[in-house]
Design goal:
Number of strands: 5
CATH topology of the domain at 60-127: Nucleotidyltransferase, domain 5
Shape: rod-shaped
CATH class of the domain at 60-127: Alpha Beta
Radius of gyration: 35 Å
Oligomer: single chain
Distance between the termini: 91 Å
Strand order of the largest sheet: 3-2-1-4-5
């Protein structure tokens, strides 16, 4: 049998092993870096302010039928008269509702929507966007 012979260099190490502490600190740093954008991210929302009563104006309805004809509040409207109606609507600050027949061509809808955008109409709603039923 061999006897255990102590060696002078085999003394216990008196330093602390810092590797686990560094690992924990790195994990905490990564968690903080990932969570900071969620805390500082803000979405600006314009909420209505109370006090002022809303006008009881009835909205104007612009309809596009399946053939591409325009109707303003039920009356037929020529394409050349649409910008004038939209300019008057913008000055009144009224609401415009756009209703499109499901069979209407998309390019016609797109052209009318571009005309509405060029007229700077900001109060616009879409009518008839219910999901299709079987």
């Amino acid at each position: 049998m061999r006897k255990f012979v102590p060696v002078a260099d085999a003394a216990p190490i008196g330093a602390i092993n810092v590797t686990p502490f560094i690992d924990v600190m790195l994990v905490l740093l990564i968690v903080m870096i990932l969570s900071m954008p969620m805390v500082t991210h803000k979405v600006p929302v314009d909420l209505p302010q109370g006090g002022a009563a809303l006008p009881d104006d009835t909205p104007h309805r612009l309809a596009i039928d399946r053939d591409g004809a325009l109707f303003w509040d039920g009356a037929r409207l020529a394409d050349t008269a649409l910008p004038g109606k939209l300019a008057a609507l913008r000055s009144d600050a009224a609401v415009l509702q756009l209703q499109t027949d499901p069979e209407a061509r998309y390019d016609r809808f797109d052209a009318v929507l571009a005309t509405i955008k060029r007229a700077n109409i900001v109060k616009l709603g879409f009518v008839g966007n219910q999901p299709l039923s079987d």
